[in-house]
Amino acid sequence: MKLFRGQNGLEFVERFKTDLDCKEYLSNYKWATGYTCVKCKHTASQQRADYSRTCNKCSHTESVTANTLFHKVKFGLRKAFCICFEMSTTTKSFSASYMSVRYGVTENTARLFMHKVREAMKSSENFPMDGEVEVDEFVVGGKEEGKIGRSYDSKKKKAICAVEYTETGKIKRMYAMKIEDFSSKELGKFFEKHISLKAEVATDKWRGYTPLKERYKIEQEKSQGGINFQKIHTMIHQIKSWLRTTYSWVSPDHIDRYLDEFCYRLNRSQFKDGIFNNLIMRMVKSDKLYQNQKPVTTCNKFFL
């Protein structure tokens, strides 16, 4: 199978003209390492015209979308592929209301599928940051009267992010995550997921980081209004602007998915030629997701 590469929309629609083209593409990812029947574990099968597989022993037929994030997609695989292409290759993605108009589906249907795509975009946590890292917390939401800075009782959504830099000072990658408050316990959860014990971490003087010094190499210095942490503050500003201008408002239950989407594209900005294939692979390898299912705290470990 020839992989689709690049960001050219005309080449994309030419490559995937029908749902059957998309099924063929998925089949090569789903059974790349061989077929195993989900019912009887037999490994021999027959391929059908729609690229589904029928077990030679128990005759169970499995479609290319079964038990993936394309499971029972309601509006056709070609539209689903188009949404994946848009969300992976564009700079800022689109809202569910825009996608519903663009591809002729209901807004709720578009939103659910886009959440499935974001679920595939989350980090594997297999490769924690181990170089020069800056960490800071931020809040998402409008102004609250009488609430400034790190207010524990604020209704705003609280989050933490980390940026790793190359040896030349350029941004290498970034991770962000929702937290319940700014305590060391909550901050520590983020460190455990995304920051190696080898990393050289720089952050501000917030006391929540002090207990983490027992395990991590953390240097604290005064922020001075952001002057000492300009790059990470710029990235935080970009996240907030993106959420505000693209989605207007995000649910506390799903904000991690939006943060994952932002970081996924940023971390692969130098590898856009293969980003669509990476996303499709993740969609196939991930388990199916239902409408009322909230994000899980653990993630699949085979993603790159």
In words, what does this structure look like?
The structure is a single chain. The chain is built from 9 helices and 8 strands. The model is unreliable at 297-304 (pLDDT under 50). A hairpin with a 5-residue loop joins strand 2 (53-55) and strand 3 (61-62). Helix 3 crosses helix 9 and helix 4 (96-103) crosses helix 5 (107-121). Helix content is 36%, strand content 14%. It has a 5-stranded mixed sheet with strand order 6-5-4-7-8, sandwiched between helices. It is of the alpha/beta class and 304 residues long. It is elongated, with a radius of gyration of 21 Å. It starts with 8 loop residues before the first helix and ends in a 19-residue tail after the last helix.
Q: Pick out the low-confidence regions.
A: 297-304
Helix content range of the residues, please?
25-40%
Strand residue content = 5-15%
Give the CA-based shape: elongated
What is the mean pLDDT? 91
Number of strands: 8
| Rg value | 21 Å
Structural class: alpha/beta
- Termini Cα gap: 21 Å
Order of helices and strands: HHEEEHHHEEEHEEHHH
Assembly state (oligomeric) = single chain
- Number of distinct helices: 9
Main β sheet profile:
5 strands, mixed
Give the strand order of the largest sheet, numbering strands 1, 2, ... along the chain. Answer: 6-5-4-7-8
